[in-house]
Amino acid sequence: MNHNKVLEVENIIKIYGKGENRTEALKGISFDVLEGEFLGIMGPSGSGKTTLLNSIATMIKVTSGKIKLKGEDISSFKGKQLSSYRGKKIGYLFQEFELLDNLTARENIILPLSLHGMTGREAGEMLKKLSWHFGIEEELDKFPSQMSGGQKQRVAAARALIGNPSIVLADEPTGALDSRNSKVLMNRLSVINEDEGRTIVMVTHDANAASYCSRILFIQDGRLFHELRRNVGTETTEEFYERIVTVLAQLGGGSADVL
């Protein structure tokens, strides 16, 4: 693994509301993400994990602290710089797929490329590679209504990766899938992370999905509660799963929060 820092989160605080309605969603969280890491973020509902992901995605502006992508402070981006960051530097994978119904799988996947100025040939090669990797070659000419949930999410994953973003942000990507399809998706993401060194940050409450990560941050009440690293090479996903479940149980009611 390359040890360059892709993402640096420095003491971020996010406060909603004022006076009696004031809520501190993030209370000074700091961590780095290295190139090629597959980082999981876990915690009970309301712990701040989605606020954290949305802050990195610049969907939410933090109250204080800094978020840097490859050394650039994204919390200060505005206008063109911001839309370029959202379009080119990050790929998104959402729980509900967010595919456009009137476009085929192929059109959905290459949609972000119109923002990137990638040429037709280059885009074609990337599309071919990703559709093979995610096993969706047969689905390329279908519309979302003709696909299963698992197929839709694999199309969405190919779309998140096609522009070669610095980092992929995944928000509960297995949340709408059954266990078989979850396993297929996590397997594919894990292979692309290991073989191509793609950096992925995933929020999940699913310990099975989290067991594919190389490291997990557990968040409770807007603070970092614990961190686990998988002993890559020696520890199986099953063994890592057991350790994750143990921490979730300590998070208090955590185990009930695991599907």
Instruction: State the distance separating the first and last CA atoms.
Output: 31 Å
What is the beta-strand fraction?
15-25%
Specify the overall morphology.
globular
Succession of helices and strands: EEEHEEHEHHHHEHEHEEH
Which residues sit in consecutive blocks of at least 5 with pLDDT less than 50?
A: 254-259
Fold-level CATH name: Rossmann fold
- The portion of residues assigned to helices is 25-40%
| Spatial strand sequence of the major β-sheet | 6-7-8-3-9-10
Write the layout of secondary structure elements.
Elements (H helix, E strand, L loop, with lengths): L4 E12 L6 E12 L3 E5 L6 H8 L7 E6 L2 E2 L5 H11 E4 L11 H6 L2 H4 L3 H14 L15 H13 L5 E5 L7 H18 L3 E4 L3 H4 L4 E6 L2 E7 L7 H14 L9
Parallel strand pairs: 3-8, 3-9, 6-7, 7-8
Antiparallel strand pairs: 1-2, 1-4, 4-5, 9-10
Helix pairs in contact: 6-7
How would you characterize the overall build of this protein?
The model is unreliable at 254-259 (pLDDT under 50). Helix 6 (149-161) runs parallel beside helix 7. The protein has 259 residues and is an alpha/beta fold. A hairpin with a 2-residue loop joins strand 9 and strand 10 (223-229). It is globular, with a radius of gyration of 18 Å. The strands form 2 sheets. It has a 6-stranded mixed sheet with strand order 6-7-8-3-9-10, sandwiched between helices. A 4-stranded antiparallel sheet has the order 2-1-4-5, covered by helices on one side. The chain has a single domain, classed as Rossmann fold. The protein has helices at residues 49-56, 79-89, 105-110, 113-116, 120-133, 149-161, 179-196, 207-210, 237-250, and strands at residues 5-16, 23-34, 38-42, 64-69, 72-73, 90-93, 167-171, 200-203, 215-220, 223-229. The longest helix has 18 residues, at 179-196.
